[in-house]
Every structure is written in C-alpha cells, then in structure tokens.
User: What shape does this take?
Amino acid sequence: MQPGLDLQTVSIYAPVVDQLAQVEEQLYELCQTDIADLHPLLDYAIRSGGKRVRPALTLLSAGFHEHERKLSLIMAAAVELLHLATLIHDDTVDNAGLRRGKPTINKMYGNHVAVLLGDYLFATSATFVCDTGVVRVIRRFSETIMELASGQLIEFFTTFDPSKARRLYDERIYRKTASLFCTSAETGSILSGAPENQVQALRRYGYNVGMAFQIVDDLLDIQGDASEIGKPVGNDLLQGVLTLPTIMLIERYPDDHPIDRLFASITNGDSDVDHLLQKSLDMIDGSSIVPDCFAVIRDYCSEAAAALDDLPDCAPRRSLLEMVDYIRERSR
Amino acid sequence: MQPGLDLQTVSIYAPVVDQLAQVEEQLYELCQTDIADLHPLLDYAIRSGGKRVRPALTLLSAGFHEHERKLSLIMAAAVELLHLATLIHDDTVDNAGLRRGKPTINKMYGNHVAVLLGDYLFATSATFVCDTGVVRVIRRFSETIMELASGQLIEFFTTFDPSKARRLYDERIYRKTASLFCTSAETGSILSGAPENQVQALRRYGYNVGMAFQIVDDLLDIQGDASEIGKPVGNDLLQGVLTLPTIMLIERYPDDHPIDRLFASITNGDSDVDHLLQKSLDMIDGSSIVPDCFAVIRDYCSEAAAALDDLPDCAPRRSLLEMVDYIRERSR
Assistant: This one.
C-alpha cells in the first residue's frame, strides 16, 4: 500500500476543483478577524495542508442537483474547519509534536493556546453552518461535534485495555472518523435539495468511506515511514490505543502476542519498550493481518459503492466511485 | 463587600424557581448518555453547583410574554451547560486545582479528559439550542462560543503586558463574561416572542450585568478569602492576568507599583513572589481603588436598570431590577 491516500493527485476532485479553491479562500478569510494576535495562529492552522477530502465529499454530494452554490460552499468550509479544530485538540491531548511533518499548534504555541484556538475553530465552524439557515443541517453538525469528542473519549477510556478496545472498536472509529464523513456527504446532499432516499444513500456512502479511511490510517501507523506519515511508527500502540491490526494480533495469538508486556513496559517506563514494539510490528508483518485488514477496507469500499447504486450517473457520482476505487486499489 | 454574590438566597429567582428545577433535571438527564464511561464525568461536572445565574437570566427575560415554555427551558439549560464547558477548559488551561472548593475536572481526571469533556459539553449545549429550531438563536449561541474562546485568547495574549491588558480590557471582559450574559437574556427574549425593542433592551441589560459581574469577580480575586472563593487570593496576578483593580494600581502609581517586579519574579521563579504579591494587594487596599471599582460596578448596574425602563412592570422585571440592586448594594 502507498503511504497515505493522496486523493488530490488523481482526477477524483475534478468536478469540484474550482469550488474547492473557493472553500480555501473562505478559510483564509477567517484569518481576517479583528483580533490581531489570532492572525498567525489561524494562518498556521489553516495553511497546514491536508487532503481536503471532507469538503470534497460535501461538494460532490451536493453536485447531484442544481442548487444555491453558496450553501454547499459554506458547508464544505465548515466541515474542513471542524476537522482542523479536532486535529488541534487531538494533538494537544496526545501531546503530539508533529502533524504532516510540521510542528503542531501545541508544540508551537503551547497547550493553553491550542485548547482555546480549537474551541474558537469549533465555534467558527458551527457559525459557518448557521449561515445555511437549515436547522436539520445545523443540528446534524452539532451532533457530529458531540460524536467526535465522545469518540476521542472512548478511545481514551479503552487505552491499554484490549477487551474493551475490541468491544468498542466500531463505535469508536465511527464516532472519531466516519461520523464527519457521513455528515459531510449527508449535509451536502440535504443542502442541494436532494430527495430523502438520496440523502440517506450519500450518508451511507460517507459512513463506509469514513470507516475505510480510519482503517487505512490504522495501517499507516504500523506500516508507514516516520518521515512520510509525519509521526513515529507504532505511535498508536505507544499511546495504548489498539487499532484493527493490533486487535487482530491479540485475537490470533492470544498466548504469544507481546502487547500485554508492551503495555506493562510503557506504563512502568521500562527500557524494553522499543524492543517489544518492534516485536509486535514484526509479528503483524509475519502474519496475514495486513491483507485481512485490506479485506475489511475493501468490504467497506464495496458497501460505499453499493450505496450509490440508485443515484443517477453524473460527474460527481463517477468521482465518488473513483474515490472508492482508489482506496480499494491501494488496499491489496 | 460580601465575598461572591449568592443570588439564590434572595428572592430574585422567585418567579422562575420551578423552571430552574426543571433546567436542573434536563442537565441531569444528560448524564444518561449511552457511553457508560462518561457518566461519572458528566455527573461530576454538572453537579458542581454554581449560582445558575445565566439560566435564571434566560428564564426571567423570557417571562415578559406567554410562550411555549419548552423553548426557554432548553435555552436555559444550554447557557448553563455552555458555562460549565468553558469552566472546564478554563481550569484546564490555567492548570487550576480547585473550583468552588472542589477539585477541578483536570485535577480529578487529567487534562486529556478535561479537554475532550469540555468539547463534548460545548457540542451538547449547541445541540440543545438546535431544539429551539430558531436559526437566529442558534447563530447567536455559536457566535457566543467564539467570543468566549477569543476572550480567553485575548486574556492569554495580554498576560504580563500592562499596556496591552489596559487597551483590551473592556473587549476581553465583554467576550469572556458579558457576552454569555447578553446572549442568555437576548435569546430568552427572542424565544418568548418579544418585539425587537424588548429583545435589544434585555440584551443591553445582560451586557451591563455581565460587565458588573466580571468586575465583582476581579475584586473577589484580590479581596476574597481563599477558603470562600475556592482558589488562592491574588491568583489572577500570579497568572499574569491584569484586572481592573490591578490596572488601576499601575495607572495611579506608575513609578511605585510593584507589578513589573512581581511579573519579573514570577517569570524568573524568584523567591520574592509572595512578598511582592502581598505588597501589591496592600497598596490596592491602602488606596481608593476598591471603592473606585465599586463605582464602576454601580455604573454598569445603573445602565442595566435603565435598559429596563420601557419594559412593562411584572414579576420578571422586578426580579431583574432586584438582581441589579443586589449587586449594587454589595458594591459599596
């Protein structure tokens, strides 16, 4: 698998590339607040790059019907901003030093600023959504923020606890990742004036793409190159976070896996952490776990594609299918 | 001045006492989320006490017109929840150990949980507001969250910087405190179906009461008894936060005040911090600064009362005036 999914290099975004540029502009306009001290912070947070996959999803989902373009543009900016806000708080609570190879906000400006800037961006994104004037969309957006925060809380409560991590795995990755993918697609569709069956179809598409995305991310963490993923390999495990590949490791080698000893060493600050981490990663490499995770990803991709069965053929639908194919192709 | 304003002991809340009990119930229902790990956290956060002055303001402001009671109750619960969320993040970024004499969430459960729980409560409060179905109210609420966060950011950017702290003082205390008072009153009035002039009058009332409240708080910090205010005396100064009395001290004794030396000592970790703090507090005590701050509070109270001039006489109006009198009486 290629590290990461560089969706922008392929033609997936073609139908919305101009609109994505406008979304980018809306985000930069944010930097024009009258609080001068905020400018460099907002600038740094917003210009941090990223695949902009969530706004693309909103714009593509809105592309099935003629509609007031302003609405889907605002919504697209809001979902990206919400994503940026969650990254800032996630990095802060994880005490992460790097994001996309650049120092995190918490490292650059301290936790104090990072918490408050995250709050400010959460609220700004919600205010953007209010500009749509559609209460159903605004409500869905607020619920999504609840799901994102509770997903992170579930992650925290399940660290270093294999059986709980397994039991709550689907719920956790839905809340922390798939929820916003769902909402990005669903709200784009609602704002385009689509009939309810299309809204639900795009919501289902978003859910399945989101679940696939999270598992791609889980794999990257154990397989990626530190310089390419911009954080240390095995970072999840070192934080006590169990993901699909490491949960599979425990399930398949209940008596031989080194995860319990690794967690004990991390907790006690023992010197064999690196050794046990490497052993865990090697055991995963030497098993069928990675191909099996790929199979789970491909299943989600198939579900996502199937969700679009009843939607009319058009450029946005072709792009959404291409996005799924792109993820599927890289998952073998 | 009495330490704190114990509004519940007087008759101010009388017209809305039953409704406040319902608000309390709505907040407790929140603890019934399906995420079991969250229960003790939500319980601790919500049962932390507090004066419930913001929901009282919403309910009293809504009391001028017959209206669907459910709307103002939801709104009242939302403003209190938002307030609780901001306290959790404020305590986290300030690394505060005590709140109302009890250990803070960050001390009890760590910063990680405190940041995410705050996010969850912010989002929950916004979701509550969506239940009103009124976009103007939902939007005002989101803007308020932006103002609260940016007020805290301004506070951070002005720490240890007397001239900047002075210049941005009004803006800062509006954003961090008066904004939510404004919004509590304004949204209550909107949801009751009041005409626009009444909405604006109650908004103005909320603004002025909020500004007065913040200065009462500023004075408490330098005058209160540590056991009664639940945090150390002079805490603001120790954090580098300049409030009205300490700004006045610098302005009146530009060459003699010990604040610059105190800040240098705090920054350098010198041993004379306690001595310089005590000297600052003694200089304030020995000047007319406290009575002069009282005069500012009384001015805000007069403005708040004047805002109600054109509203019809009724129990809620009498309570709102009583609230102002109560603050004014204790500010001499």
Chain A has a mean pLDDT of 91. Chain A has 16 helices and two strands. The longest strand of chain A covers residues 98-99.
